[in-house]
Amino acid sequence: MSVVTLFGLCGPVLVGLGLFGLITNPQPLRKILAFNLLGSGTFLLFGVIARRGAAAGLGGDPVPQALVITGIVVAFAATAMAIALLLRLFQETGQATLEPDDTNDTNAATHTS
Amino acid sequence: MMPGPVLLTNAATADGFLLVLAIVLPVIGILLLFACGGRYVERIVFFLIPIGLGVAVAVFAAIWRGGRSLIYIVGGWEPPLGIALRADGLSAAMMITVGVVIGATALFAREEFGQPRQRPEARAPFVFWILLLAIWSALNIIVVSDDLFNLYVALELLTFAAVPLVCLKGYEETIKAALRYMLFALFGSVLYLLGTVLIYGAYGTLDIALLADRVRPEPVAWIAAALMTMGLLAKTALFPFHLWLPPAHAGAPAPGSAVLSALVVKGSFFLIVRLWFDAMPGLMTVAATQMLAALGAGAILFGSVLALRQQRLKLLIAYSTIAQIGYLFFIFPLSAGAMASDPWSGFGWTGGWMQLFSHAFSKAAMFMAAGLIAETLGHDRIAEFGGIARVLPITTFAFGIAGLSLMGVPPSGGFVAKWLLLQATVMEGQWWWAAVMLIGGLLAGGYILMVLGKTLSDADVPLKPHGPITRSREIVALTLALCAVLLSLVPLRSAEFLQIGRPVTPAVAPQ
User: Fold this and answer.
1) Neighbouring-strand partners of residue B381
2) Which residue of A has its CA nearest to B157?
3) Residues from chain A contacting residue B201 (CB–CB below 8 Å)
C-alpha cells in the first residue's frame, strides 16, 4: 500500500470519526473537538487529492495546498470563537453544557429575559 | 479534460470593478472603525451606507442597461486557476435588498447603539456596528462569488459576524443560543468544505460556470452535492435543522434579529440555489427537488404550528421565519419541473425570489416592531399586549402590514410570491405543494391576527410605558413594511431582470 493510499484512507476515517462525535456527543467541547477531527480529515483528503492531481508532471497540484492553508485558518478562527463562547458560558453559569430542556422553548421561555 | 464550449466567464466587463467596491466598502468601514474608535462610529457608518447603496444601484443599472452579467477577474488570473466575481440580475437584486435592509437597520439602531459624546464609550455598541458592516460585506461576497471555495470563506465570514450578534446582550440564554448556533454552523461549514474538496478532486475546478459543463450525474457528484446541501441547510435553518434558530433570533437585540432573520439565513439559501441550478444543473432530478421541497413543506407546517403556540412575540416571529424559509424551497421542484422548457421565465422561479425579497423586508420590519413593543412594555408576552395599539399606533400598523405579506394577503409582495408559486404548482401538476401553501397561509393568518387582536384590545391594567419611543424608529419599521407592499406593485415584466445572466440550457436533468 503506497503512502498516498494510506493517507487517502486515513482522511475518510477521520471524517467518519469526527462526524460520529459531532452528532452523538452532547457536550459542546467534545463537539468542537469532533469538528476539528472532521476538519483534519477533510484537509488530509485535500492533500491527497493534490498529490493525485500531479499527473501533469509537477510535484503536486498547488491549488489544494493554498486552499488547505486558508481552510486551516478559517477552522482555527471558528474553533477559537466557539471556545470563547463556551468559556463565557462557563464564567456565567459555572457549567459548560447546553442542557436539552431549553430547546423546547414554549414553556421554558415564558419568563422574561 | 475535454475542450468545453467557449465560456463567457473569461471576459471581464468594464463595470466589474463595482463588484469589488461593493465587497471592499464595508471592510474599509470596519478598518476605519478600528482605527478611529467608537467616537466616529456614526459618522463613518452613515457616510459609507449611502455609498454602498449607491454601488448596489450602479451594479443594478449596469446589468439592466447591458442585459448581461458583470464579471470581474480577480488579479487578472482567469478561472480555473483564478477567482471570478460575477453578478447576474439575481445578484444585483439581492445586493439592493441587502443594502436597503442594512441601511434601515442602521437607522433603527442609531438610538440604541449610538455613542453620544457626553456618555463614556461602551464596547457592545461599537461591536454592533462592526458586525453589521461585516455581515454586509459577507453577503455581498456571497451574491457575487463564482468560486465554491471563495463562497466557503464568505459563508464563514457571515457566520463569524452573525453569531456574536446573537449574544451581544451577554445574558446566559443568549450565550447558550449563540453557542448552539455556532455548533450548527461548524457542522454546516465543514460538510460544505468536504463537498468542495470532493468536487475539486473529481473535476479539477471550483469555478461555478466551468463546473456546470463538467459535472456529470455520478456517485462522487451526488455525494458532494448531498454533503454541501446538508451543510447549507443547517445554516439556513431548514426543518429539521431549525433547532438553533428561535433562541438565536429571539435573543439578539431587535436590530440584530432583523438582520439575522431577514438576510443572514438567505445567504446560505442563495448558495444552495447557486449550487443546484448553476454549478450542478445535471444533478437536478425530480427526486432531489421533491425531497428539498418536502423539507420546505415540513418547515411551513411545523414552524407555523409552533409559532401559533408561542407566548412571546420574538419567539413567534422567529418560528414564523422557519415557516417562511420553507416556501423558498418550493423554487426547486417548481422551476426545475418537466413542463418548463426555460426554468428562469417560469412562475416558480419568479415567485420564489419574490418570496425571498418580500420576506426580507417584512421580517425586518416585524422584528423592529417587536423590539419597540418590548422596549415600551419591558417584556414581550403576547397575552399582556392590550392597549399597545393606542400607545404605538405606527408600530402596530407596521406590524400589521408586514403580517399581510407573511399571510399572503394582497396587496403585498408576499401575496404576489405565493400567488405565483400556487400558479406554478398548478402548471407543473404538483398540487400537493399548493395544499401545504394554503394551510401555511391560514396558519400564518392565525398567528398574525392573534397578536394584532391582542394589541388592539383594551388594556386590563393601564399601560406604563418604560420610555418614550422616538417617532423616527417607528417610521423606519413602517418604511420597511411598506417596501414589502410596494414589491407587489412592481410590474411582473420586470421580473425578466432576474433572468439576466442565467445559463441558457434548461436545468432539467434527463430522466
Assistant:
1) B312
2) A74
3) 45-46, 49, 52-53
Q: Which residues of A touch B306 (CB under 8 A)?
A: 106
pLDDT value at residue B344: 66
Residues in chain B: 511
- Examine residue B55 and state whether it is found in any structural domain, yes or no: no
Please give the C-alpha separations between residue A56 and each of A60, B78, B213, in angstroms, as whole numbers.
9, 19, 22
Interface test with A, best of B141, B190, B199, B243 (most A CBs within 10 A): B190
| ipTM (interface pTM) | 0.87
pLDDT tens-digit map of A24-48: 988 899 999 999 999 999 999 988 8
pLDDT digits (tens, 9 = 90+) for B186-212: 999 999 999 999 999 888 888 888 888
Comparing alpha-carbon positions, the chain B residue that sits nearest to A93 is B172
- How far apart CA B300 and CA B437 sit, in angstroms, is 8
Does the residue B346 lie in any domain? Answer: yes
Cα(A109)–Cα(B135) distance, integer angstroms: 28
For cell 452535492, what's the residue? B225
In angstroms and rounded to an integer, the radius of gyration of the C-alpha atoms of chain A is 19
pLDDT at residue B254 above 50? Answer: yes
Chain A neighbors of B186, CB-CB under 8 A: 22, 31-32, 35, 78, 82
Contact between B91 and B232 (Cβ < 8 Å): no
Query: Is B44:B35 a contact under the CB 8 Å cutoff?
Result: no
Q: How many CB pairs under 8 A join A and B?
A: 114
Residue B490 lies in a domain: yes
Spell out the domain ranges in chain A. 3-95
**Overall domain count for chain B:** 1
Judge: A85–B178 Cβ closer than 8 Å, yes or no.
yes
Residue A58's contacts (CB-CB under 8 Å, 6 or more residues apart) are: none
Closest residue to B176, CB basis, from A42, A71, A102: A102
Q: Which domain holds residue B291?
A: 286-502
CATH number for the segment(s) A3-95:
1.10.287.3510
Q: Is residue B291 part of a domain?
A: yes
pLDDT computed for residue B143 by the predictor? 93
Sign of the dihedral through C-alpha A38, B226, B138, B121: negative
Q: Given pLDDT bands bounded at 50, 70 and 90, which one contains residue B478?
A: very high
